[in-house]
Amino acid sequence: MSKKTQHFSLKVLTINIHKGFTAFNRRFILPELRDAVRTVSADIVCLQEVMGAHEVHPMHFENWPDTPHYEFLADTMWSDYAYGRNAVYPEGHHGNAVLSRFPIEHYENRDVSVGESEKRGLLYCRITPPALDFPIHVGCVHLGLREAHRQAQLQMLADWTNALPEGEPVVVAGDFNDWRQRANHPLKVKAGLEEIFTRSRGRPARTFPVRFPLLRLDRIYVKNAHASSPTALALLNWRHLSDHAPLSAEIHL
C-alpha cells in the first residue's frame, strides 16, 4: 500500500426516508430531514425510499422542492449523487439514492426484483476519492418484504460482490427488511461481507420503529475494510423524521 492510501477513513450514513413524509404521510418534512442529515457530516449517504418525481404532491405541499429530492438533499454538501428508480406508478416513482462528497465515477441501478411483485434495486456506485489509488464500491439496497424474495436478493447481492475486483473495498448499506436476521450468514459465507454492528456488538442494531426500536432491519456491511463507531441515531430530533433509525459508522481502508 502506498503512502497515498494509508489511514484513509470516511463516514457512512444510511436511512430509509419514507419518501420525505412522517409516519402515515401526515406531514412532508424533507427540508427538516435534510438539516438533520447534514448534522451527521457523512461523506457517503445511502438513502432508501427517495421520491424521484411526483406529479400531484407539489400542488398540495408548499415546501415541496423544485429539484428532485436526491438533488435537494445533496444541496451544497455532497457534490455527487446518483438515483436508482425502482417503484414506478402513474403519479411518479421512487427508489434508492447515494450522495457522495467524492466523485461517483460510475453508477448503475441493478434490478433485484423477484417475479412480478414489488420492484427492488441495488444502486451501485463506484466512488473514487482523490486520496485513494483504488475505488470504493458502494451498494445501496432496499430488499423485499417476503423471506423467499430476500433470500434470492441476498444471492444476487453476493454474486454482485464476488464480481467486483478482488481486494477492493466494498460497502453495502440500506434497509434489508431482515426482521428474522437471516442475512448475515449467507452474505458472509458466500461473499465475505461482514455486518459492522454484528462484528462490534454481536447483533445488528435495532432500527424499527424508531420511537421504540424492536426490529433489526437496517444494516451496513463491509468487505476489505474495517469499521468503528457504529451508531444507531435514534435521537429525539430524528424520531419524527423517519420510521427507521439512521445508522452511521466510520469506515477505515
Architecture overview:
InterPro entries: Endo/exonu/phosph_ase_sf (IPR036691), Endo/exonuclease/phosphatase (IPR005135), GPI-anchor_lipid_remodeler (IPR051916). Residues 14-244 form the Endonuclease/exonuclease/phosphatase domain. The chain is α+β, with helices and mostly antiparallel strands. It is 19% helix and 34% strand. The chain contains five helices and twelve strands. It has helices at 30-40, 69-74, 147-162, 184-191, 196-201, and strands at 9-16, 44-54, 80-89, 92-100, 104-111, 121-127, 136-142, 170-175, 194-195, 218-223, 226-232, 247-252. A six-stranded mixed β-sheet has the order 3-4-2-1-12-11. The chain has a six-stranded mixed β-sheet with strand order 5-6-7-8-10-9. Helix 3 (147-162) links the parallel strand 7 and strand 8. The termini are close together. The model has no long low-confidence stretch (mean pLDDT 92).
